[in-house]
Design goal:
two-stranded antiparallel ribbon, mainly alpha
Length: 238
């Protein structure tokens, strides 16, 4: 399976590759890409992940005016994306397309991670175990920042919803924009939680296959690392 099969491009084939070529040319000529957290590549602009709100609820707001994202709402999107992006798609040539919303990741596939882990060439089986543990630990490191921000945004949205009843001369447009934003924020949180559950299942699936493909004492350490990750997810209710 090649990398393109993990993404849905909305354009026709000729248009699709034209857009890809234009994007790559833009990135190379403008020099506007930089390394993000854990070596990810991203464009240097604040609105990189703004598309995630509408993607999370599966709709596009038709309101002529929309609330600008707050700092924490933008942070929520920035922290959610690496927990939704498949680990094996990081630092790929097409990752900048997905990160900016020009391509969409397919729903999680539990077998896909194991396939990549087992089929990618490594110098030793130890490297495969190290790669699996690295991915698990990277995700674990992201949990506290994401869920801390998610709690804050959810709390502000509850206050925002309560405030609607006290706004004088509230227009339908203002109400629709506010309700749309709250749905988007909630949708992103739910999307990320679902992705994390599938992520943990993918790591479990991969570890079980790795154990029978390449038995190693490292399997015990990897199992402990995964168990801690699963415990932390359960503590967050994910």
């Amino acid at each position: 399976m090649n990398g393109r099969e993990h993404f849905i491009f909305p354009h026709k084939p000729r248009q699709r590759w034209g857009a890809v070529a234009a994007t790559l040319a833009f990135v190379m000529l403008a020099g506007c890409s930089t390394n993000g957290d854990f070596g990810r590549t991203r464009l240097q602009r604040d609105s990189t992940h703004d598309w995630m709100g509408e993607a999370a609820v599966g709709s596009i707001s038709n309101a002529p005016w929309q609330h600008q994202l707050t700092d924490e709402e933008r942070r929520l999107r920035d922290l959610a994306y690496p927990l939704i992006e498949p680990p094996y798609d990081r630092q790929r040539w097409y990752s900048v397309l997905a990160e900016n919303g020009w391509a969409r990741p397919h729903p999680p596939d539990r077998a896909a991670y194991a396939s990549r882990l087992l089929q990618t060439a490594y110098r030793s089986q130890t490297a495969r175990y190290n790669k699996l543990m690295e991915d698990i630990r990277n995700d674990a490191t992201r949990l506290d920042p994401f869920f801390g921000t998610a709690r804050y945004v959810a709390d502000m949205d509850r206050k925002r919803e309560q405030s609607l009843a006290y706004v004088r001369n509230l227009t339908r447009e203002e109400r629709d924009n506010t309700e749309q934003r709250m749905r988007e924020n909630e949708g992103i949180i739910r999307w990320t939680q679902a992705s994390l559950r599938e992520r943990a299942a993918s790591y479990q699936f991969a570890l079980e296959r790795l154990v029978i493909a390449a038995p190693s004492p490292m399997a015990v350490e990897t199992e402990r690392t995964l168990a801690l990750f699963q415990q932390r997810l359960a503590a967050y209710g994910a």
